[in-house]
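Run log // design_07
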């Protein structure tokens, strides 16, 4: 086999392998900014509620920032991160909880699992 055929085959193989790389789909929303709201525990009988504040910066579909929670026995405040797909926000918080929030206008709502099952509602601050 001539060197030109070998080169052509190598380029074809490398080109198709590069197309197989797994990446997150592009974000269609940007949640960069400050968000404030409330959390309510759905875990009975303990219950509980409090304030929640999140400040994040988004690059592409990934985001990172800080989370401040008040009124919680086990304080999950600290660094937070996650990714955005469509209007869905997948989030991980310091206490090891994960959640899925949905953006509707300037409001994020959803649930965090692993922290007594919290329901969260936050509004973008302007």
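design_07 sequence
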């Amino acid at each position: 086999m001539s060197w030109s055929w070998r080169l052509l085959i190598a380029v074809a193989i490398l080109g198709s392998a590069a197309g197989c790389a797994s990446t997150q789909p592009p974000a269609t929303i940007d949640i960069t900014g400050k968000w404030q709201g409330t959390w309510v525990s759905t875990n009975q009988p303990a219950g509980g509620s409090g304030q929640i504040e999140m400040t994040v910066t988004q690059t592409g579909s990934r985001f990172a920032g800080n989370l401040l929670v008040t009124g919680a026995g086990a304080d999950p405040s600290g660094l937070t991160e996650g990714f955005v797909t469509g209007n869905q926000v997948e989030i991980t918080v310091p206490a090891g909880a994960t959640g899925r929030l949905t953006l509707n206008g300037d409001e994020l709502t959803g649930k965090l699992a692993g922290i007594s099952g919290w329901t969260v509602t936050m509004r973008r601050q302007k």
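The beta strands are 33-41, 49-59, 62-70, 78-85, 88-92, 98-104, 107-113, 118-125.
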